[in-house]
Amino acid sequence: MTNPDFATLADWRRRIADLYASVREIATSDPQLAWIQWRRVRDELYRVHPQSPVPADGRSAFQGRYWPYDPAFRFEVQIRTSDPGPAAPADVDVLGGGSVPARGAGPAMHLPMSSGDAMTFARIGEVRVPLPQGPRTLGLFWMAGYAGGLFLPFRDDTNGSHTYGAGRYLLDAAKSADLGTAGATDRLILDFNFAFQPSCAFDPQWSCPLAPPENRLDVPIEAGERIR
Questions:
Q1: What is the mean predicted confidence (pLDDT) over 114-126?
Q2: CB burial of residue 115 (10 Å; 0-12, 13-18, 19+)
């Protein structure tokens, strides 16, 4: 990357971080209004920003597609930490931030990738999500390199028909996509209305970590971003 590329990437991250900070604040009183703000700002960034994952020739006409907001897909869940077992790493390296204790983390692992080199994660626990179709469990991960942070990808029965075939993301804290805690550090807000496609859904030049088998839901999640 050239210096201007780094500058625009820093600006992209700053804007996304500001967006999610705004979303978390608005959602304390009106989650649907926060979702409207998220859609508006995100779509504008995808149209005009040089770091948009949308190919340059399609940006000006880009318009995100979403299911209508459904409050039944917003949850407050508790993180149930993993039993690390004897193979667990002593710590997890966080790029630029040294390392953090991996207490409660499982062994280092590679998640599936859309393309390119594997990325290392630690499974730090799981969340039990009381979906309208019945409760399901999703693994929760910590990205060991890059910028670190919580990561929660998932697949569901809309993949390949209405959403990207390899799934979507609920949390990607390395890129500030985080809806915050639910009053305690061991609780998370998960809102599938904010589920979004990874960058590789827009352009295969991007390399994206994808959902492992344990995060493949056997039901359709008709909430969040869609591609058709």
A1: 89
A2: exposed
